[in-house]
Design brief:
The chain is an all-alpha fold. The chain is built from 12 helices and no strands.
Length: 269
């Protein structure tokens, strides 16, 4: 019976979150006539984060009957999509760094032999997978269609989004003017990227175990709560609605927030 009640609460929370999101979206659409730029930015933020936030607010309040943990949970839910996007961007940058080392080395060798920047870009596009190979393919296509080397280099660096890509773009611009005399600099850059890649892989290996352990510890209260709810439904439900229960839930939510910020700090280092 209690399990059914919680399922109903979750569905109700999602429904309320969806309704509020739709209302907010329509309201912003109406305001677009008076403040189009504000409306555009607001529309970008309204969707999944709003649904998750309002749903979390309703669900947590229904369980613990306390405003503070409910608001904290809503904030975490609002921020969750951003954290997922951040993790995806980090993985993409890590993959780009991994591939750029080989790409720069291949470009350097091809450029030294052919004395041609387009041929170097083409070689990388053919032999290096996405995302780096795809970015080089775009650069090669634009260059062959007459786009200036400066625009192509800048766009390539912006697409890859890592610092070494901007260094490579700068060397591309210089190579267009100075020729194959720049080839050794491309090779040196390849060595530096390889060293940075090895360092990043070592740090990832060192940190991964700790990160996964922390995630498991933070997630452990959820299955523990479900087990207790199944074994002692009335006692578990009553405990969460006491001061001690509220403090416990609040501390758990604060620990999640602390872990997110510390995790970002460690990863960025």
């Amino acid at each position: 019976m209690i399990i059914n009640t919680y399922i109903y609460t979750i569905i109700l929370g999602l429904a309320i979150g969806t309704v509020i999101t739709i209302v907010s979206y329509v309201t912003v659409g109406i305001l677009a006539k008076f403040a189009p730029e504000f409306a555009r930015r607001a529309k970008e933020s309204i969707t999944l984060p709003y649904v998750l936030s309002f749903s979390a607010l309703v669900i947590v309040y229904a369980i613990v009957k306390s405003v503070v943990p409910a608001i904290i949970a809503a904030g975490i839910a609002m921020y969750a999509p951003n954290q997922i996007i951040y993790a995806q961007q980090r993985r993409r940058k890590s993959l780009a760094l991994e591939q750029l080392s080989a790409a720069v080395g291949l470009f350097s060798n091809t450029f030294l032999i052919t004395k041609s920047i387009p041929r170097g870009l083409e070689a990388v596009a053919k032999h290096v997978p996405a995302p780096v190979g795809e970015a080089f393919q775009t650069a090669y296509s634009e260059l062959t269609f007459g786009v200036s080397i400066n625009q192509v280099a800048d766009q390539l660096a912006e697409t890859l989004g890592i610092s070494y890509a901007y260094v490579f773009a700068s060397l591309l611009k210089s190579a267009d003017k100075q020729g194959d005399v720049m080839a050794p600099l491309f090779r040196d850059l390849g060595y530096k990227i390889a060293a940075a890649r090895d360092k990043a892989n070592f740090q990832h290996t060192e940190v991964s175990t700790v990160r996964y352990t922390n995630v498991m510890l933070l997630a452990l209260p959820v299955p523990a709560y479900l087990v207790l709810l199944n074994k002692l439904p009335e006692a578990t439900e009553t405990f969460l609605q006491t001061t001690a229960g509220n403090v416990l839930v609040t501390m758990w939510l604060v620990a999640i927030i602390a872990w997110v910020f510390l995790d970002r700090l460690i990863v960025e280092e």
